[in-house]
From TrEMBL:
Domain TRAP C4-dicarboxylate transport system permease DctM subunit, residue spans: 136-627
Transmembrane segments: 32-50, 62-81, 93-112, 150-168, 188-215, 318-339, 360-378, 384-402, 409-430, 436-457, 478-499, 519-538, 545-574, 609-627, 639-661, 673-701
Source organism per UniProt: Halalkalibacter wakoensis JCM 9140
InterPro entries reported in the protein's UniProt record: DctM, TRAP_DctM-Dct_fused
Signal peptide (residue range): none
Keyword vocabulary terms for this entry: Membrane, Transmembrane, Transmembrane helix
Superkingdom to which the source organism belongs: Bacteria
Record protein name field: TRAP-type uncharacterized transport system
Length: 718
């Protein structure tokens, strides 16, 4: 490749197939079967888009909404995911058709009979019992196919605990085992499958998955990667730093570490290898940056919406509190990458090989606007689904009309005027929100401005077409991407139901507190281990639900503020996604990097561990969380000081992990780096002063050793 040739991201045409295979589906169907799946997926997306913008359909309550959400999800699971991988199916198996029809019948029965006397009184008929048992089996089997065995095993352990708890000793003993009560609570009340996790999936999560799928279909991934490469590509280890930034931006929106890793990794991993990173290191960097995107505002993947239900905070307050820790965690990954590049003397890319930032922004910088619109409506006080709906409206308008205006401006303007007029007519005739018409109008004007700007500067349009085919593909991809969350939240509801029915929810915090001996740091350490173990092989949403119900209340009981406790378990729940040996993102990128999955997973965990101690910092000293209850309590200089010392602690811990700063650390220097990082956990002026002194000492030693080595090297060559 010549130096004058520009490097620019091009999406892999087989990307969708890869994502599906890595998520557990290698079934590839064609013809009417593919059309059937496409139709159901589009129906699912359109239904959720409508409810986000206009509210629930008259006559459909929240429970009915969850039933429709779960039923469509289960039907798609059994049509898309085979009974096991490796069968190489090119058709939907006959038995999966039958199971899908059973799932459809169960959903219809639940919908039609939710107000029957037998359900309302708890006196189930035989048919009610059969449907309840069938639903439980369907949910667990769907979870096994999509998420894998770990979550099913955990759910089975919890179910066994419900029925065998009377054999255990206190404090785990309970005497509430009853089969009919179990299946009733799990299926016909809001205590089990149709509890908070599934409600959040139906109301909040799906609409943002749809937003992310459409945004990616418009070429946002290309924009993120090109901009990140332009900003960091020419520096030491540049492609890796670009991978961190672009994967973080995309990961916040997509909410799927696997899909994110494959999407950006298809391009960034070969570039990282090109400049000198080892295959497993390149894959590990992509794994770490893709997973941690779920902590980044403004969308924070799916778990942020669960936090709305489990904490007394609004969405705006949650993203405000998560912002500083998220930025610090990404600085940690960037610093890890920088030191890795320094260790192996890995350079960046020539500037001539990078796409112009001006060209990138002119081509598709308008795709940032929907994210700005999302934040605007959230801050203004609109509901989360409503804000996402308006963002999707302007996103679709921009995508469709930039493509239309590029082809023929005249006919495009005529269609645009008709559409805008129709949108305003719907406001006056059907009382649609005026914001819909405003978003359409703004989108049309911005699209026209972008196309005229491209022609004026003679910049070619972005090589991403967006027509009806791409729109429908985005709808289908959103439904497919949501299946992991749908089944995981349904199964997580079973876990929550068992915890509540057995009374474990009230006893577990006491057990943890007593075991920790009222030592907060010990309790936090136990929580870290629990997060990493419980989160093995689970999607972040399921991990967070389990930890929010089982562990977070114990931290709150020990004096940790609610927000800090939930961000603590969320952070380590995300880190669990990178924990070997069950590390789905690592398996996803190992094929691209041509590396061994376990070694790639170890590298992913390593690069994601730079800010490993950060949650300990904000759990014991909440200044950097900007908690609403702390408003006005701390001045900005105090906040800045705490951010600075937290950053110094991260730097020290990264040096410890990498065993390198300017030169390779000696044993005592590594211990000094670890001690420095630990000292910074406790936020007081005494410990901060000690930490700064220790870090200064470490840096001074490194400078002297580096200077001596350089001098000896020069002497040897002279």
């Amino acid at each position: 490749m010549s130096k004058k040739e520009e490097i620019s991201y091009q999406a892999d045409p087989e990307l969708e197939k890869k994502v599906n295979e890595l998520a557990g589906s290698d079934r590839s169907v064609r013809g009417w079967m593919a059309l059937l799946i496409l139709s159901i997926a589009i129906l699912m997306s359109l239904y959720h888009l409508y409810t986000a913008g206009f509210g629930l359909i008259p006559g459909i309550g929240t429970r009915s909404h969850m039933i429709i959400h779960l039923t469509l999800g289960l039907v798609l699971v059994f049509l898309i995911f085979p009974i096991k991988r490796g069968l190489g199916q090119t058709k939907i198996a006959w038995y999966d058709f039958i199971i899908a029809l059973i799932a459809l019948f169960v959903g219809y029965y639940l919908y039609a009979n939710q107000t029957s006397s037998s359900i309302l009184t708890g006196r189930m008929t035989d048919m009610d019992k059969v449907v309840a048992i069938t639903l439980l089996v369907l949910v667990l089997e769907a979870t096994r196919r999509v998420v894998g065995k770990p979550l099913v095993i955990i759910a089975s352990v919890f179910i066994a605990y419900f029925f065998l708890g009377h054999y255990l000793n206190p404090p785990f003993r309970h005497t509430r085992a009853n089969f009919e009560n179990f299946i009733y609570e799990m299926t016909y009340t809001t205590s089990g499958i149709f509890s908070t996790p599934l409600s959040v999936s139906a109301v909040y999560v799906f609409i943002f998955i749809l937003f992310g799928a459409i945004l990616e279909a418009t070429g946002a991934g290309k924009m993120f990667i090109d901009l990140a490469l332009r900003a960091f590509g020419k520096y030491k280890g540049g492609p890796a730093k670009a991978a961190v930034v672009s994967s973080g931006m995309l990961g916040s929106i997509s909410g799927s570490s696997v899909a994110n890793a494959v999407t950006t990794g298809t391009f960034t991993i070969p570039l990282m290898k090109k400049v000198g990173f080892r295959p497993q290191t390149a894959g590990g960097i992509e794994v770490a940056s893709s997973s941690s995107g779920q902590l980044l505002p403004p969308i924070m993947g799916a778990a942020a919406f669960l936090m709305i239900e489990y904490t007394p905070y609004s969405y705006a307050e949650i993203i405000r509190s998560a912002a500083i820790p998220a930025i610090l965690s990404y600085i940690a990954i960037l610093f890890m990458v920088h030191i890795e590049a320094s260790k192996h003397n890995i350079k960046g890319l020539p500037k001539e090989m990078l796409v112009s930032a001006r060209k990138t922004m002119i081509q598709h910088g308008y795709l940032i606007l929907p994210v700005i619109v999302l934040v605007y409506f959230l801050v203004r006080g609109n509901t989360v689904p409503n804000a996402a709906f308006f963002s999707i409206v302007i996103l679709l308008t921009l995508a469709v009309f930039t493509h239309r205006f590029r082809e023929k401006i005249g006919p495009g303007i005529i269609i645009a005027v008709i559409l805008a007029g129709l949108a305003y007519s719907m406001h006056f005739v059907l009382n649609w929100n005026i914001e819909i018409a405003v978003m359409v109008t703004i989108g049309i004007f911005i699209a026209l401005f972008v196309v005229l700007l491209q022609k004026s500067f003679k910049v070619d349009a972005a090589p991403v077409r967006f027509g009806m085919r791409e729109l429908l593909a985005g709808f289908e991809m959103a439904a497919r991407n949501s299946l992991t969350v749908v089944v995981a939240c349904a199964t997580a509801g079973i876990l929550i139901g068992v915890i509540n029915l057995t009374g474990l929810s009230a006893r577990l915090p006491v057990i943890i507190v007593n075991f920790a001996g009222d030592n907060l740091y010990l309790a936090l350490a136990f929580t870290l281990v629990a997060c990493l173990i419980l989160g093995l092989g689970l999607p972040t949403t399921a991990t967070y639900v389990i930890l929010a119900a089982m562990v977070a209340p114990a931290l709150v009981q020990m004096g940790v503020p609610i927000m800090a406790a939930h961000l603590f378990v969320l952070y380590y729940g995300i880190l669990a996604d990178d924990t070997p040996p069950i590390n789905l993102p690592a398996y996803a990128v190992s094929g691209i990097a041509n590396s061994e999955p376990i070694r790639t997973g170890i590298q992913g965990f390593k690069f994601d561990s730079g800010a490993l101690l950060l949650p300990f910092v904000f759990a014991t000293n909440t200044v950097i969380l900007l908690l609403p209850e702390n408003a006005g309590l701390y001045s900005w200089p105090v906040i800045a000081q705490n951010i600075f010392t937290a950053l110094l602690g991260i730097i020290a811990f990264v040096i410890f992990i990498q065993n390198f700063f300017l030169v390779k650390l000696r044993f005592y220097e590594r211990l000094l780096a670890l001690a420095t990082a630990i000292v910074f956990i406790h936020g007081s002026w005494v410990t901060d002063t000690i930490g700064i002194a220790l870090l200064a000492l470490l840096i001074a030693i490194q400078f002297m050793r580096k200077k001596k080595m350089d001098h000896e090297g020069q002497a040897a060559t002279s």
